[in-house]
Every structure is written in structure tokens, then in C-alpha cells.
Specification:
single chain; three-stranded antiparallel sheet; SnoaL-like domain-containing protein
Length: about 160
């Protein structure tokens, strides 16, 4: 089996998300033992739990229009960050707009940690420069608690 490069994996993931296929991207790239956080609160441990928690939201969409912007990655650290501005419509025709920031730590072609931020958490990270320097998250979380939670310094 040919091992894909980190850049290829990130690119393929972004292509799937842009195509409105978030579960396909998840299934292909999220590690079985990966962890997922939402605004620094543990959301799920393991791919099974993470998928089960996301499916109800994704499955209500009759149309997903992927829009991933401001993708930045650091290959040597295997981290990437991007804005998720995807929109989706429900079967009732109600349109929803996502506005979030996604930070990922990869290993061996899989996402081992994903941190999703929205609202004030996202705005703070953007103001602190995470889109230009995604490695700042590694530095910020070096002292994290055993459950992975830790608030960023707002100073």
C-alpha cells in the first residue's frame, strides 16, 4: 500500500468537505482512537462516538454546499487549520450557515485530534493569529488537563 503524504491527505479531506461529503471525509481520515473537542470541551473519544454524535446533524441536510477557506498546514508538525463556512439546507428548505474554525493534529494519514471552534472562541483564536500560525495551538495546549480541556489565555 502506498502511504499518502500529509499534504495529500489534507488536500483530499478538503476536497471531500468542499464536495459536501463531511461523513466521507470523516470516515476516510478520522483515527479510530481520535478525540474531538468543541470550543475546548471534550465532544467525543474515538471515531465511533464522534460519528454517532455528528450523524443526526448531518443527516438532516438534504443539500450540503461545502465551503472551506483559509487552509493552513505545517507538514513537519502534521497540523492544519481552516475555516468552515459550509451551508446546508434541510428537507423543509431551511438553510443553515456554518461559521467555524477547525484545527487538526494528524498522524500517519489520520486525524488524531480535532478542535472545532465557533462564535467568541473562534473570533479569539483568529485575533490571536491561529490562521497564520496554527502551531500556536500546540504551545497553548502543552499543559492541558488529562481530559484535554483548557481555555486559551484571553490576555
Amino acid at each position: 500500500m502506498i502511504e499518502r503524504s500529509f499534504a495529500d491527505c489534507v488536500s483530499q479531506q478538503i476536497e471531500l468537505l468542499q464536495a459536501g461529503k463531511p461523513l466521507a471525509a470523516f470516515d476516510k481520515f478520522f483515527a479510530a482512537d481520535g478525540v474531538m473537542f468543541a470550543n475546548d470541551t471534550l465532544f467525543a473519544t474515538g471515531a465511533g462516538e464522534a460519528r454517532r454524535k455528528q450523524e443526526p446533524f448531518i443527516n438532516t441536510a438534504s443539500l450540503i454546499e461545502g465551503m472551506i477557506t483559509e487552509v493552513r498546514s505545517i507538514e513537519v508538525l502534521q497540523i492544519c487549520v481552516f475555516r468552515n463556512k459550509t451551508s446546508f439546507s434541510t428537507s423543509e428548505g431551511v438553510r443553515h450557515q456554518i461559521d467555524g474554525l477547525c484545527w487538526q493534529q494528524w498522524r500517519s494519514g489520520k486525524i488524531i485530534e480535532e478542535r472545532y471552534y465557533d462564535n467568541s472562541h473562534m473570533r479569539l483564536l483568529i485575533a490571536q493569529g491561529v490562521l497564520k500560525r496554527p502551531d500556536m495551538m500546540i504551545e497553548a495546549y502543552r499543559g492541558r488537563q488529562s481530559d484535554g480541556s483548557m481555555s486559551l489565555d484571553c490576555a
